[in-house]
Design a protein that fits this description.
Layout (H helix, E strand, L loop, with lengths): L2 H6 L3 E9 L2 E8 L7 E12 H8 L17 E2 L5 E2 L4 E7 L8 E4 L6 E5 L3 E3 L12 H14 L6 E5 L3 H10 L6 E5 L5 H8 L2 E3 L8 E6 L4 H10 E9 L12 H7 L3 E4 L15 H11 L9 E6 L3 H10 L6 E5 L3 H8 L7 E3 L1
Parallel strand pairs: 10-11, 10-13, 11-12, 13-14, 14-15, 16-17
Antiparallel strand pairs: 1-2, 2-18, 3-6, 3-8, 3-17, 4-5, 6-7, 7-9
Helix pairs in contact: 3-4, 3-8
C-alpha cells in the first residue's frame, strides 16, 4: 500500500474539546480523504499555550470578542463546546506532489490527524527539530510584538513577565543593539531562566527606570502599573497580555497622564500595523520557524505528556499542580494511530 492509499483509507481522528467550564475530553470524529490542494497531516507534537488555552478551559472568553479570538482552524464556538489550540507539528502523509513526508507546523487544535489546505502549512526547516517547532506560534507572537514596539539602536527596554511570551520577547530582543534590556518578574527563580536566555534579570522593585519601551507580558494589574512607572516620559508600553474577562484598575492620574505615556496593544491575530502592508501571516510564520534553529529555545519546553493524557494535563495546568512554560503533547507513532483510526468504536475520555 502506498503512503497515499494508506493515508486516505483511515476514516477517524481524535481531538481534544473543551466541553464546559474546566471540562475537557477527547472525541473521535470522521476524517474524509484530502481534496485537491489539501494535505493529510499526522501530528507528532502539539504545545499547550498555557495563558490563552486556560482562558478557554475556564470558559472565560468575553462574548464581545469571541469571533476575534477564534483560532484559525477552531471548531465550535466559545465558550463551549470548542476545539481550540494552535501549536501543532506533524508530518504530511498525503497531499499534492512534493508534500508527502514533509514536517510542517500548523495553527491547528490538539488532534492526532487532520486535513487542511497546504496554504495553512509552514514547512519546518531541516535545522529545527520537530519538538522545538511547536514554539513557532509563540515566536510569531513575539515577532509581531517587536514589530509593534519598533525598538531602536541604543534603546533601554524592559520586558515585564518572564513567562512563555515574555521570555520569548526577551530572547529575540537579546539580539538587538540595545543599550539596556531587563527581564522582570516577581519570582526570583526566574533568574536562572533569564540567565539561560542571556538576559539581565530584575525583581520589579529593583528594575531600572526611564525606559524607552516597556513590553508588558505578565497579565497582571501590578505588572501594568509597574510598566507605567518604569517607562520614560513620552514612552511606549506595549501590552501583550490578554486579560480575558478580568477587570483591572490603573492609576491613570499619576504617571500615565502627567508624563504623556502611551499604552498600545499587540495581538497576533493581525500583522502589526508597522508591517501589515509588506508582510503576510505566512511570511511572519516562516520567519518565526526559521529563528528556532537556535537550540536555546529548548529552555521553553518544560515537560511532556502523552496525547491520551491531555484532558488531565490541561486540568493540572489549570489548578496549578503542573507548572510549565510550553508543555509538549506527544502523539502515538504512525502504526498506533493507524490501528485506532481503523476502529469504528468512538473514543472518548472525559475529565470532570
Amino acid at each position: 500500500m502506498t503512503i497515499s492509499e494508506h493515508a486516505t483509507s483511515e476514516r477517524h481522528a481524535t481531538a481534544y474539546w473543551t466541553v464546559g467550564p474546566k471540562q475537557g475530553e477527547l472525541r473521535s470524529e470522521d476524517l474524509p480523504a484530502p481534496g485537491p490542494g489539501e494535505a493529510l497531516v499526522r501530528t507528532l507534537y502539539s504545545g499547550i499555550s498555557k495563558g490563552t488555552e486556560l482562558v478557554v478551559h475556564h470558559a472565560s472568553v468575553p462574548a464581545c470578542v469571541a469571533d476575534a479570538m477564534a483560532a484559525p482552524n477552531q471548531e465550535g464556538d466559545f465558550p463551549y463546546p470548542v476545539k481550540f489550540g494552535y501549536l501543532t507539528v506533524g508530518v504530511v502523509e498525503d497531499g499534492p506532489e512534493g508534500w508527502a513526508g514533509r514536517t510542517v507546523f500548523c495553527l491547528y487544535p490538539h488532534q492526532d490527524r487532520f486535513i487542511v489546505p497546504v496554504e495553512s502549512l509552514t514547512v519546518v526547516p531541516d535545522g529545527v527539530p520537530a519538538r522545538r517547532a511547536v514554539l513557532t506560534g509563540t515566536v510569531e507572537t513575539a515577532v509581531n510584538g517587536l514589530w509593534e514596539a519598533g525598538p531602536r539602536l541604543g534603546d533601554r527596554v524592559a520586558v515585564i513577565g518572564a513567562g512563555l511570551v515574555g521570555g520569548m520577547v526577551a530572547k529575540l530582543l537579546a539580539g538587538f543593539p540595545l543599550a539596556r534590556l531587563q527581564l522582570i518578574d516577581v519570582d526570583p527563580a526566574k533568574r536562572a531562566f533569564a540567565d539561560a536566555l542571556g538576559v539581565d534579570f530584575s525583581h520589579p522593585d529593583d528594575a531600572l527606570p526611564d525606559c524607552d519601551i516597556v513590553i508588558h507580558c505578565s497579565a497582571s494589574q501590578e505588572g501594568l502599573q509597574r510598566s507605567l512607572q518604569l517607562v520614560g516620559d513620552d514612552g511606549d508600553i506595549i501590552e501583550m497580555s490578554w486579560y480575558a474577562d478580568r477587570k483591572i484598575s490603573l492609576p491613570l492620574g499619576e504617571d500615565f497622564h502627567a508624563r504623556r505615556l502611551s499604552i498600545r496593544a499587540s495581538q497576533v491575530g493581525m500583522v502589526a500595523r508597522a508591517r501589515r502592508h509588506r508582510r503576510t501571516n505566512a511570511e511572519r510564520l516562516a520567519l518565526a520557524v526559521s529563528l528556532l534553529q537556535d537550540p536555546v529555545f529548548d529552555v521553553f519546553l518544560t515537560g511532556a505528556s502523552r496525547f491520551e493524557e491531555l484532558p488531565g494535563t490541561v486540568q493540572r495546568l489549570a489548578d496549578g499542580t503542573l507548572d510549565a512554560l510550553c508543555h509538549v503533547i506527544e502523539y502515538p507513532p504512525a502504526d498506533a494511530q493507524s490501528a485506532e483510526a481503523q476502529s469504528t468504536a468512538p473514543f472518548t475520555e472525559a475529565t470532570r
